[in-house]
Write a structure and sequence with these properties.
By secondary structure, the protein is mainly alpha-helical. The chain has four helices and no strands. It has helices at residues 10-19, 54-57, 59-74, 82-102.
Length: 103
């Protein structure tokens, strides 16, 4: 089985989104000029990210997502339908029941 860390893309994505400098993207429609106190607190040491730089900065995360998808495709039985899996479960449950009756 693949390592669980392969599928852990949310923390880097959150970090990237927290770094976006919203003040450079133009005027806001909101009357609230003070963001919530918890926004970006964990990423205080990070440089703000200009929204125009987002496409280049997201590339490593997109690569991680592609690798995770490839690993998912390699897992056994990923090509089977849900119905095929249900049928196998029913067959196995019937075998278990027959074995219990034999005891």
């Amino acid at each position: 089985l693949p390592s669980p860390q392969i599928f852990d893309v949310l923390p880097p994505l959150h970090e990237l989104l927290a770094r976006i400098d919203h003040s450079s993207s133009g005027p806001s429609d909101s009357t609230n000029t003070n963001p919530p106190a918890e926004t970006g607190v964990a990423y205080v040491d990070q440089q703000p990210l200009d929204p125009k730089d987002l496409p280049n900065e997201i590339l490593p995360i997109k690569g991680r997502i592609r690798r995770a998808l490839k690993k998912l495709e390699e897992l056994p039985d990923m090509d089977r339908t849900v119905e095929e899996q249900r049928e196998e479960i029913e067959d196995l449950e019937a075998r278990i029941q027959a074995q219990r009756e034999m005891l």
